[in-house]
UniProtKB/TrEMBL annotation:
Keywords: ATP-binding, Cytoplasm, Kinase, Nucleotide-binding, Transferase. It is found in: Cytoplasm. InterPro entries: AAA+_ATPase, Cytidylate_kin, Cytidylate_kinase_dom, P-loop_NTPase. It is an enzyme of class 2 (transferase). It comes from Serpentinicella alkaliphila. The lineage of its organism: Bacteria, Bacillati, Bacillota, Clostridia, Peptostreptococcales. Its EC number is 2.7.4.25. GO terms for molecular function: ATP binding; CMP kinase activity; dCMP kinase activity. One of its GO terms (cellular component) is cytosol. The gene is cmk. This is Cytidylate kinase. ATP binds at residues 10-18.
Length: 220
């Protein structure tokens, strides 16, 4: 049985999750937000008040943590943590946890397991380059950093009208995360050689979705 694999990578705020969700819905297949997995583990580290530099302890936690998706909702040790993983604190610290090689080995193994048994759209930073090297479609989404920060700001404002963060703060955070994600040694944020680059500033979300579905239909 051939399972469809669609890999969507790119920097923070490029529109990956919005696009991946739409594709998954259209095709009736699973959407796996791998960033949410790194965030869930980071949330646990924060909750246990573990020092972010204590790699040994974080590895230990990673080994005994259960992270799973049920109906598209992320569960950490059996508890829905969809809201908690979006906090500013988790967002600030996630790239520190995600750069630990052992953490990546554990989460990548989980991601591969899901993709070996289901049709999936998976988004992240290393999906086309590392997690699903034989994906049917590999897309690398980009947009200028100011555009990505503006989008994130509006998205956050919509959820929280008392938002104290300014768009400049978000831009600073995005730049720092992109730098850490691109420069780390273990499977960094990188465009896979055979990925198609789509700039989401130039197209609407629906145009990008259509383009990805077109590429997929030509493959199968
Ligand atoms: O996608 P999102 O912005 O929620 O991802 C949060 C963080 O998780 C990223 O900044 C990155 O450090 C990490 N990540 C990763 N590899 C992935 C997905 C996310 O390192 N495949």
């Amino acid at each position: 049985m051939h399972y469809i694999q669609i890999a969507i990578d790119g920097p923070a705020g490029a529109g990956k999750s919005t696009i991946a969700k739409k594709i998954a819905k259209k095709l009736g297949i699973l959407y796996i937000d791998t960033g949410a997995m790194y965030r869930a583990l980071t949330y646990k580290v924060v909750k246990l008040k573990v020092d972010i530099n204590n790699i040994e302890k974080i590895n230990e936690i990673a080994k005994e943590t259960n992270i799973e998706f049920r109906n598209g909702i992320i569960f950490l040790d059996g508890i829905d943590v969809s809201l908690e993983i979006r906090s500013q604190e988790v967002t600030k610290l996630v790239s520190f946890v995600a750069q630990i090689p052992e953490v990546r080995v554990i989460l990548v193994e989980l991601q591969k397991k899901v993709a070996n048994n289901n049709h999936v759209v998976m988004d992240g930073r290393d999906i086309g380059s590392n997690v699903l090297p034989n994906a049917d479609v590999k897309v690398f989404l980009t947009a200028s950093v100011s555009e990505r920060a503006k989008r994130r700001y509006l998205e956050m404002l919509e959820k929280n009208s008392d938002l104290t963060l300014a768009v400049e703060d978000i831009e600073k955070d995005i730049k720092l995360r992109d730098k850490m994600d691109s420069e780390r040694e273990a499977s960094p944020l990188i465009k896979a050689k055979d990925a198609i680059v789509l700039d989401t500033t130039l197209f609407t979300i629906d145009q990008v979705v259509e383009e990805i579905l077109n590429i997929l239909s030509k493959k199968n």
